[in-house]
Amino acid sequence: MRTALFPLITATWMVACGPTYPVDDRVTQPPPQGDTVRLPDADRPVDRGISVDADLSDEIDARVLRYLKTTRVAGAALAVVKDGEVLHTAGYGWADVDDEAALTAQTPVLLASISKTFVGITAMQLLEEGSLQLEERVDAFTGFAVDHPTSDAPITLRHALTHEASLLDTSMFYGQFVAGDATVSMRDYVEGYVTPGGDFWRDDNFFEYAPGEEAFYSNVSAGLAAVAVEHVAGMDFREVVRTRIQDVADMPNTGFLLADLPQPPSLGYSVDGRDHITWEPFGYPNMADGLMRSSADDMGRYLAAFQRGDFLDPDAIDQMLAPQTIDPPQDDAQGLMWSTRERRSRTLAGHSGFHWGAVTEMWFDRETGAGYVLALNTNVRDLEFPKRMALETDLLAFAESR
Q: What is the pLDDT of residues 292-330, one digit of tens each?
């Protein structure tokens, strides 16, 4: 029996909300924490990037600044698109509060689980080319065995792309955060996670139920799918994304590793009373699930290029976005790494993300073509959630007004 997997959480998120499934807190460690800082008294700076209509951009800027001020978010990157055209991009507030360094339209910001959309696109590209098959065992494409420890049922590529691989994110996932980039490769990490006796093995890395019986959100599952992509493509997953997505959409300020970025990324923050905790740039081996950093300009071009079909044919897009695991559909329906969501009579496609120092949303209306990417560099209180939803509704309305 397939079951719904989706709480609102769609990435590693253990600061304000806490985990939504079993984690051994004794060995779970957050990324390196920096100084405690206080937001400057000055108005938040605005760095406008792409703009096709100055009056529209003025309205968007005013709306975003009002949201940031009322929620105490330090900084944000925003892109608004419609029908494959970038209407507006901008950076708001501060990338580094202590130095009062502005977050610009070119500043890389942590995307959290929006990163998984890159896994979905590259997997679908290889499916279109015939190099991958959804119903084939995933280990036909990884170069190492991937077997459920107590079930003979195969783990397929579809299972990995839809969180049905029976994988659980244990402390062997949550305990791997380091300052800077991780030194363990994603491939070595995933192999060590799924292999009994491996370097990252725990007896409970898999659920007891068989693959395909239930869907449960797993970041390691996304890493497993990404390893299949890179193994079949014959190059590191970062290079797959660079050549097949970043170069196509012109995304120079985007990368999974800090070493890949041409400039320092935004720092991350969490509200702590009147102050903000700083999260220094961090890494972990399973990078494909949530470590992509990108700028407002780059993400605007990314979403617009996706809408235009620059990465995938229309039939492949339909297949990737089609609900795979939820019957009947609920608020978020899982596609192949992407999701769809019903909101106020709209059907939106995209993904959301949460991380230490990151709250991100990327959605577009498949009927009207209106869409946005919003990347906040601050974790705020749960009470602020309705304010963000109101902002996102307004962003769609701004796009639809064109």
A: 999 999 999 999 999 999 999 999 999 999 998 755 445
Tell me: pLDDT of 10 over 60: no
Distance CA 84, CA 306 (A): 7
The tens digit of pLDDT for each residue in 177-186 reads: 999 999 999 9
Confidence of residue 383 (pLDDT cuts 50, 70, 90): confident
> Is residue 384 helix, strand or coil?
helix
Residue 382: how many other CB atoms lie within 10 Å: 9
pTM score: 0.93
Cβ partners under 8 Å of residue 51, min gap 6: 57, 87, 88, 89
Residue 174 to residue 232: CA distance in whole angstroms: 28
Per-residue pLDDT at 97 exceeds 90 = yes
How many CB atoms lie under 10 A from the CB of residue 191?
21
Q: Report how far residue 16's alpha carbon sits from residue 113's, in angstroms, rounded to the nearest whole number.
A: 17
Do residues 191 and 198 make contact, with C-beta atoms less than 8 angstroms apart? Answer: yes
Domain 33-400 class, CATH top level: alpha beta
In the block, residue with structure tokens 């449960």: 216
Q: Tell me whether the omega of the peptide bond preceding residue 264 falls within 30 degrees of 0, making it cis.
A: no
Site of tokens 């049905």: 164
* Domain boundaries along the sequence of the chain: 33-400
50: Cα within 13 Å, side-chain hemisphere: 19
Starting at the earlier edge strand, list the strands of the sheet with 33-37.
33-37, 275-279, 268-272, 378-379
Mean pLDDT of the chain: 91
Ranges of H-type helices in 175-332? 186-194, 219-233, 237-241, 247-249, 296-308, 314-321
